[in-house]
């Protein structure tokens, strides 16, 4: 069998580190540990259909959602590995109400926010799911980190990425020098560069939104989606609708083919006035990636996601993200 001779992810990480003379190697080490966790989770996800990890664990998380067993496995895998990595001072996870401390004596200079298994409601129906992560430099001086090390705007992110467990397992990440995609070769347990320097197409013909919530959206968003569905060949309309209901899968498709994803705020649930998705470990990392790939990310007040100053760990936000030309269009509608 012909073995791949491609660029491994560790090669890419070290090359990127060497481009920054002041780099100490800590970020490289952090990413490497995170990638090991991703490989372990990937192996479990691929077994999920066979083993008994399917099905709920009987617990619910801060969002009031059932915690799937794979959620728990992914969460514990990342927490255990990163707590003793020596590269971070504090963590937050979608699955944990409070901040997660690191092992005494192993406090490092970064903070980590992650969604261990986004789209978990799709596990039982074999739809692609994913781990999303974002990394900030700590702002506290030393010792165990605090919420302050996590509640930073996305504009100050050092790195962000996701691992999508789909027809193949892929890692897509950026450390601020473009977006790179790696595909896992399970036969050697290595991620190989498969999508160098990903650029999201400027314009697209896809929109991705749960239209079941149409009557709860702001009028400007309703007008925009109706506009995309009108027949006008000159402006490439109607757009095609693609919605998987798994954020990482919808985002990844749009990153490769172009498209605009929307999860608008809805007036139905006063408990989620800003929208459903979380700022720290969903909107921020994906907004960092999409801007690195030439796209844009706003909330439905027209605010740049990366400029939002978080105030709570599990803060929710509305999200409009994807091809620059499409997000520019939404911005026009939001401005009336
Ligand atoms: P809805 C999955 O539960 C998730 O958090 C995201 O992955 C996904 O984009 C969204 O919710 C889907 O939400 O309301 O359309 O089912």
Topology:
Layout: H1 9-18, H2 26-47, E1 56-60, E2 66-68, H3 69-83, E3 88-93, E4 100-101, E5 110-118, E6 129-137, E7 159-165, E8 169-174, E9 180-185, E10 190-195, E11 206-208, H4 219-229, E12 240-241, H5 247-257, E13 260-263, E14 277-278, H6 279-292, E15 296-298, E16 316-317, E17 319-322, H7 324-334
Parallel strand pairs: 3-5, 11-12, 11-13
Antiparallel strand pairs: 1-2, 3-4, 5-6, 6-7, 7-8, 8-9, 9-10, 13-17, 14-16, 15-17
Helix pairs in contact: 1-2, 2-3, 4-7
The structure holds 6-O-phosphono-alpha-D-fructofuranose (P6P).
Unreliable segments (pLDDT under 50, ≥5 consecutive)? none
Number of strands: 17
Strand order of the largest sheet: 4-3-5-6-7-8-9-10
The SSE order reads HHEEHEEEEEEEEEHEHEEHEEEH
Which outline best applies?
Answer: globular
What is the name of the CATH superfamily of the largest domain? Answer: Fructose-1,6-Bisphosphatase, subunit A, domain 1
What would you report as the Rg, rounded to the nearest angstrom?
19 Å
Structurally, the number of domains stands at 2
Major beta sheet summary: 8 strands, mixed
* Fraction of residues in β-strands: 15-25%
Bound molecules: 6-O-phosphono-alpha-D-fructofuranose
Distance between the termini: 59 Å
As a percent range, the share of helical residues equals 25-40%
Number of helices: 7
CATH class of the largest domain: Alpha Beta
- CATH-defined fold name of the largest domain: Fructose-1,6-Bisphosphatase, Chain A, domain 1
Broad structural category: alpha+beta
